[in-house]
Design a protein that fits this description.
11 helices; globular; 4 strands; mainly alpha
Length: 229
């Protein structure tokens, strides 16, 4: 992270908020769009094959740890505000979403997003999956289906998107992704407003080189586990 001029500029920019509100999107050419999609397919396919031997192990551990489905499916908001089914390995007890209203006062982040560092709904296996980011593996299916990209703003819930300010909705102009500036900068340690600003920095400055640099910095960020909970 320290070696990335793009991330350093995104995190410590003194650019007035008005210029972000009036964000002028770069218009990627067809070559960039086609190369990005091809890269998504190749990387997602490769990672699924690479982790194929451990997927049954993860599924067995989830099933033995607590009752409920192995995969967790949830509606998220994609490009242009279009909803899609978002997949993860289940890391919480069944019915966890029903407890959000009760636990919301304990949320450790600002804005409409709900996160608790020591969330009582997370299972023993789920805590390991989250810290190792293995719970994210099923999202590679979303990437292959074109609903997500390897690099792009993280997709949020419809209830969260409905509370976006107008300038924050500009992050919906691009395909959501598995990793982006927010992921490599510290994830849940980053406040909501800063998270949104980092995403808009990506939307404005995205390029194939930027995507490659973010992907290369994602592995060290996952190993460091900063903000992973």
């Amino acid at each position: 992270m320290a070696g990335s001029p793009e991330l350093h500029e995104a995190m410590y920019s003194t650019e007035p908020i008005a210029s972000i509100i009036e964000l002028k999107l770069s218009r990627p050419n067809r070559a960039y769009s086609a190369l990005k999609r091809l890269t998504d397919i190749v990387i997602a396919g490769f990672l699924l094959l690479l982790f194929l031997p451990i997927i049954p192990v993860v599924a067995l551990l989830i099933r033995l740890d607590s009752p409920g489905p192995i995969l967790f499916k949830q509606r998220r908001v994609g490009k242009g505000g279009k909803p899609f089914n978002f997949y993860k390995f289940r890391s919480m007890v069944t019915g966890a979403e029903g407890a959000i209203d009760t636990l919301r006062p304990l949320s450790g982040v600002d804005g409409p997003v709900f996160k608790i560092k020591e969330d009582p709904r997370i299972t023993h296996v789920g805590r390991f999956l989250r810290r190792s980011s293995l719970d994210e593996l099923p999202q590679l299916i979303n990437v292959l289906r074109g609903e997500m990209s390897i690099v792009g703003p993280r997709p949020n819930l419809p209830s969260e998107v409905s509370q976006y300010l107008p300038w924050q909705r500009r992050r919906l102009d691009v395909t959501p992704g598995i990793t982006c500036f927010w992921q490599i900068a510290g994830r849940s340690h980053i406040g909501f407003q800063e998270w949104m600003r980092l995403d808009l920095e990506y939307v404005r400055k995205r390029s194939y080189v930027t995507d490659l640099k973010i992907m290369l910095q994602t592995l060290p960020a996952v190993i460091a586990r900063k903000g992973a909970y």
